[in-house]
Amino acid sequence: MTALITLARGFGPVVEGEAIVSEEGFSPRYDLDRWSGVITKPGHRLEGLSIKDRICFFPTAKGGIAAGWAFFDIQAKGIAPRAFCFGVTNPVMVQGAVLAGIPITEGWSPDPRTVLRTGDWVRVDPGRLVVELLRRAG
Q1: Domains in the chain, ordered, with CATH?
Q2: Which residues pair with 39 in a beta bridge?
Q3: Which residues contact 62 (CB under 8 A, 6 or more apart)?
Q4: Strand ranges, E, within the chain
Q5: pLDDT at 2 over 70
Q6: Taking every annotated instance into account, which residue ranges of this chain make up the domain Phosphomevalonate dehydratase small subunit-like (predicted)?
Q7: What's the pLDDT band for 1 if we cut at 50, 70, 90?
Q8: What are the backbone angles phi and psi of residue 101, rounded to the nearest 5°?
Q9: Which residues lie below 8 Å from residue 31, measured CB to CB, with a gap of 6+?
Q10: For 129-138, what is each residue's pLDDT tens digit?
């Protein structure tokens, strides 16, 4: 089973992994425990899930200047995701991901929330600007 999501922009190598698909935006400073890689913001729909080695789909990136270095921090600690796929991001987040060597994309069609679910196995190809569904969860 292969479904394609077309991306608007992307950076980084091709990666595969388990998807985390969020209805909410993401801040590496305020939504994440940067020692464990677990989303700890009270009330966040993904509270308790780890982003480590996952491919993270968030509709928006939240945060400013400190959010960018947080990506480098989580990469150095070995708790970074395999990729960030944002609907909308900002230059600071992109700069942080590039510095950390974490693949990052922005813009999608269709919205991943309509074709993917948390636990699906996906391939992100920033060079070709596509996301492929390789295997459904469960």
Answers
A1: 4-135 (3.50.30.10)
A2: 32
A3: 25, 26, 27, 30, 31
A4: 4-11, 15-21, 32-33, 38-39, 54-60, 83-88, 104-109, 121-125, 130-135
A5: no
A6: 26-104
A7: low
A8: 75, 25
A9: 39, 40, 41, 44, 62
A10: 999 999 999 8
